[in-house]
Amino acid sequence: MKLSEIPVTQVAGVGEKRAEDLHRLGIETVEDLLTYFPFRYDDNRLTDLKRAGHGERITVRGEVFGETSIRWYGRKKSRLSGKLMVDGLPITVIWFNQPFLRDKLLPGKTIIVAGKWDRRRLQLTAERTLLDPRRQGFEADRLAPVYSVSGSIKVQWLRKAIHQAFVQFGRHIEEPLPEALVRRYRLMDRAKAMYLLHFPRGWEEGRQARRRMVYEELFLYELKIMALRRRIRRESRGIARKLDRKRIEAFIDALPFPLTRAQRRVVDEILTDMAKEEQMYRLLQGDVGSGKTVVAAIALYANHLSGYQGALMVPTEILAEQHAETLGKLLEPRGVRVVTLTGRLSARQRREVLRDIGNGSAHVVVGTHALIQEGVEYHRLGLVITDEQHRFGVKQRARLREKGESPDVLFMTATPIPRTLAITAFGEMDVSVIDEMPKGRQPVETHWVKPDVWPRVIRFIGERCRSGEQAYVICPLIEESEKMDLQNAQALYEELTKALAPLRVGLLHGKMAPDHKDEVMRRFAAGDVQVLVSTTVVEVGVNVPRATVMVIYDADRFGLAQLHQLRGRVGRGGGEAFCILVADPKSETGVERMRILTETVDGFEIARRDLELRGPGEFFGVKQSGMPEFRIADLSRDERILEVARADAWELVSRSDFWERKEWAPLHAFLKKEGLDNPSLD
Ligand code: ADP
Ligand code: MG
After folding, report:
1. Residue 143 CB neighbours (<10 A)
2. Residue 383 is inside which H or E element, if any?
3. pTM score, two decimals?
4. What is the fold, at CATH topology level, of the domain defined by 245-434?
5. Ligand 1 binding pocket, CB closer than 6 Å
6. Would the pLDDT of 617 be above 60?
7. What is the C-alpha separation between 282 and 270, in angstroms, rounded?
């Protein structure tokens, strides 16, 4: 019997109407219902009143006696007072704003009340009341599960339905985990853990049940990732190339600067991968300004020398052009021809570029998503590098690997990702980190100011720009308020144009025609425009060495990671640089975000605190992030379990008999469902 195939209407008491509302909670099958776990518990266990301290939260059962009295404050507020006999001790109970209880508190009735205990006055201020403790079997004298519900589904009803589902189907719950692991970690068996996670008899039992289910969830997730990783490693269809070490080193020696130690290390990691017959599949993390582009250039050069074409994919057209220019400067003197492929080429240009890509006279192709669209035929594509495509999920990344003749793949990202998230979202890849900035880089001096000092900010921009520096003024543009945001950007542009004359101010936003956008950006890069008012398009990667001032208007409307990225746009020429956050945040986390930015320029530190503030789901910015959504595991809490589950999963899928052993049939079935069949069969 497969519980994941039995509709929830098979549970007694769940009719069509309820099933519809359950559907809205994502519950369709019996399995869904059984694993719809509570997000907290009400502690309804009875307290020994004699031991309860003053001010504690307690729960007592007692018999109503005497009269109740009620006092009204205005029309809405009331205070109901009644008497309860608890283990021979008469106490007073106060209910605020629940006048309807008065008719139910008949003398002689037994009720349970939870609330705050005033020991001196023998008085209990009620927070929860159970009027019929005998009938409320899942609420009285126990930890009562609390679920997130909506529509006609009420928590009480759900408790009963879930209990009923266990009564009918509990014995069909199967154990997917290998016995050895269950024993190694002393895990509860699955059926028991599932039941006790809903209805624990105490906190410790609840914790053990949770530990078991978290391990299972993370283990199965990692099993999938590791099976994929195993498959990538096994399929040695990659390119075994001979690297021309001598010319690569000569290229590195001729760079205008020595590589940092961190750059050197990741270059070696990448070259080692490239020389192997297996396909490279690597994530390169490095804070903004840590120098990823030159690493990419070295890899592309090495790839070219071994006789292959390379591609670099970036998120925007401006970036594509800038990267093409940077790479061109480095590579063309060595006979490497760099071309750009964006959605902006004329039909004729596009035809020509495609032809050159196809016949191999283009050696390195830089472009946007256009690179992986239909109609692009590569010529011995050996290396694909992506910059800032961390929103690609596992599947999209896999598609890149399948281009051409199984090229090596390098993912670059400037978003520092805390380890737990990195090994979850990018778990099937190897990871390199540039954790060091080029020498002589000064940290960007960051200030947070309130909007009322705006005139001073304008004066400051003027001073810096008159001495030959340049400034960005960034204002947010979000879809929901796009129109107003555009007006704001426009107004800001006009204000600055007037206030800063004769300095030249440019305006750049996402709604502008591409040519126009280009023109503005080009003039800013050339120093022809000194101040650039922009919505967030400069966010990723654009390099203007003379830009030293970054002003972010309404900074509290940006996420931490984004603010950090923006800040990384200045000070790229060495020397002093400033970031001014103009904001009057209304929320506490808004204030906290401003504070974090003024306190540190370390991207990893910022990422860690961002994760704390927003939780893993939000970290990359909503759904398409490629981050899985877990039912019970919480990555900010369950880091250790994740590490252990990951190691266990890897060990298991690495066994040569993994796919043969019958005892692991549930795991084989699970992987098959995920599209990861036994690799030796295909
Ligand atoms: P990012 O990692 O943000 O893509 P870039 O590759 O754009 O960073 O590098 C930022 C700047 O630092 C560029 O101007 C680049 O020339 C310079 N740079 C890179 N590596 C070094 C180095 N080892 N020493 C000095 N400057 C460097
Ligand atoms: Mg970059």
Report:
1. 22
2. strand 381-387
3. 0.68
4. Rossmann fold (3.40.50)
5. 257, 259-260, 263, 286, 288-294, 414, 438, 541, 543, 572
6. no
7. 8
